[in-house]
Fold:
Amino acid sequence: MSRMIRARIDTAALRANYSRIKAVAAGRRAIAVVKANGYGHGAVTVARALEAADAFGVARLEEGVALREAGIRQPIVLLEGVVTRGQLQEAAAHRLELVVHEPGQIALLEDWRGPAPFALWLKLDTGMNRLGFRAEQFAAAHSRLAALAVPSSRLRVMTHFACADERDSPVTREQLARFSAIAAPLGLETSLCNSAGIFGWPDAHGDWVRPGLSLYGVSPFAGESAASLGLAPVMTLTSTVIAVRRVEQGEYVGYGRLWRAARESRVAILAAGYADGLLRGLPDGTPVVIRGRRAPLVGRVSMDMIAVDVTDLPDVEVGAAVELWGPSLPVEEVAARAASLAYELLCGVSSRVALEVTT
Ligand SMILES: *Cc1c(COP(=O)(O)O)cnc(C)c1O
Structure:
């Protein structure tokens, strides 16, 4: 069945982006982050395509289990760890590695009587104040983990930057200094960088980098294109024109009558709406691409449809394919129109969108 809205996933671009990241972080290992269904690209699709990946990262237990059930054999890191004994048991059964960021998790591990088949990533909070032990708690947390039956090669330290996407941020310099002073002296393997850290903070690469967004060919920096970083977009989101209509000068289009035709216009109606993952906040003028040419969105994004002014593209007809983002229109640019981020658009792609994999 051919669906009206499709996301084509270019696995060759995905592999090229992974290679590019490995070249930028030369000699480091990479945890390819595939949480949130691989940022909307299909976590299993992405993991299968990246057979070269050193490891995968997910946020939640169920995401890691889904990868194991699909036959993925690389190490898988649970970036939020686990909070109950049952979760720990399930994580152990699936050989998942755990981030340890709060004392209750250490207590669970101390009470755990099963084998210790996974690695542990002890997280230092260097200033983000989301997950991780504060500096003054860190040494005690480390001693307790070191007393468990986990070989030191499988005990690692990590942190996360709050502002790595600001190329010269004093915040990142401070976080890096704190990590170097407190965690690095333990002599364990380290991990600090998301995509922005990888491309913006080469001094912070550590032993393991954690690319997410950049894997999918998206720039982590406002005002710097993915192409300038050597990355290519992996997803092309394409919809279909389902009606083309004439709108008289002075008439309105869509809910709330927010857009008024300043001239007699041709308006194409597309099968794409917020139920597919488009943001309702996308304003008039947001571009789409039809046969290589841009046309502006007009009126409200509704649940199943958007309207586009094609007055200047007279050959657009019902059935025409329309790129909503992809190689001709960076998802970063679309996100910026709604004061959002590519992250939100990509992981918002809904189950109504057909994922089509190309190699
Ligand atoms: C999501 C996540 C990443 C990946 O971040 P990107 O900005 O998408 O590269 C890395 N580390 C942690 C802890 C994460 O939660």
